[in-house]
Design goal:
By secondary structure, the chain is of the alpha/beta class. It has one domain (2-249): EAL domain (TIM Barrel), CATH 3.20.20.450. It has twelve helices and nine strands. It has an eight-stranded mixed beta barrel with strand order 1-2-4-5-6-7-8-9, surrounded by five helices. Bound molecules: guanosine-5'-monophosphate (G) (2 copies), manganese (II) ion (MN) and sodium ion (NA). Residues 37-38, 49-51, 54, 70, 94, 96, 240 line the site of one guanosine-5'-monophosphate.
């Protein structure tokens, strides 16, 4: 309760900020996207990571105004960078279950795009399997409305939820992000290697773009590239970066 109260106030006081983790094209090594990752600058405790407040924000509904702040800020930053002539990248934003099922997500996304003037094709929404599978018909309607805005849709942490192939076929999705739990030991464990191969195979068959998360070694990157993975994200390449650092990196690559 105490924390809930603090969290609500923190949204109003704008105590949050975003970090950005680059995502690279596996063939060219160019940065094609960044994932926006939320941090809370708590005046008492300092920097707080999302795992310690997102679950509570979800339970209490604070995630709705907070998620709106993330979308507005991510789009505003994209616009600012584009105006400054920074190398263009997609911006991937994490959407929590409650934002998708309960909030009017397409309205929030549309407003953030209109306010910033960013072209929708630069915005990518990361949804999890668990949030999509709750009410499949409603999900298809919601996804179609979002796709109508021309944003792209990813399934985040793929492989950890229900992974129903039926819905993959019916949902208008653009990217699959393979959960980092499978990438961790992809070079050592035959089971994990087989799972990753299967996910890449399914994605190719359905014309989806595949992103490997949590790539931590060169061996993993080389293996995944040989298997046809399209994009990489992970500590081997970049950790989540503060805005300043990201802009330096993008400037050095342009
Ligand atoms: O940044 P870090 O790896 O600590 O993120 C931990 C978790 O928090 C991840 O599962 C990530 O998806 C989630 N997360 C990070 N930023 C956001 C956000 O803006 N909104 C939501 N809903 N989840 C986020
Ligand atoms: O659930 P989601 O995929 O949104 O989680 C993103 C989280 O994964 C971020 O908190 C980010 O810090 C973390 N992350 C990104 N790359 C790596 C990596 O290579 N290794 C590990 N352990 N975590 C990573
Ligand atoms: Mn994510
Ligand atoms: Na993920």
């Amino acid at each position: 309760m105490q924390l809930e109260f603090k969290l609500r106030g923190a949204v109003e006081r704008e105590e949050f900020f975003l970090e950005y983790q680059p995502i690279l094209d596996s063939k060219t090594g160019r940065i094609t996207a960044v994932e926006a990752l939320l941090r809370w600058n708590d005046p008492e405790k300092g920097r707080v990571m999302p795992d310690s407040f997102i679950p509570l924000a979800e339970d209490t509904g604070v995630i709705l105004p907070l998620g709106e702040w993330v979308l507005r800020t991510a789009c505003a930053k994209l616009r600012q960078w584009q105006d400054a002539g920074v190398m263009p990248v997609r911006m991937a934003v994490n959407i929590s279950g409650r934002q998708f099922t309960q909030g009017d997500l397409s309205k929030t996304v549309e407003d953030a795009l209109l306010q910033s003037g960013v072209h929708p094709s630069w915005l990518e929404l990361e949804l999890t399997e668990t949030c999509l599978i709750k009410n499949v018909e409603e999900t298809v309607r919601k996804l179609c409305r979002l796709k109508g805005l021309c944003v792209s849709i990813s399934i985040d942490d793929f492989g950890t939820g229900y992974s129903s192939l039926q819905y993959l076929k019916n949902f208008p999705i653009d990217h699959l992000k393979i959960d980092r739990g499978f990438i961790n030991n992809v070079c050592e464990l035959p089971d994990d290697r087989a799972i990753v191969d299967a996910i890449i195979g399914i994605a190719k068959a359905m014309d989806l773009h595949v992103i490997a998360e949590g790539v931590e070694t060169r061996q993993q990157a080389e293996h995944l590239m040989r298997r046809g993975c399209d994009e990489f994200q992970g500590y081997y390449f970049y950790r989540p970066l503060p805005e300043e650092k990201l802009l330096e990196v993008l400037a050095s690559k342009a």
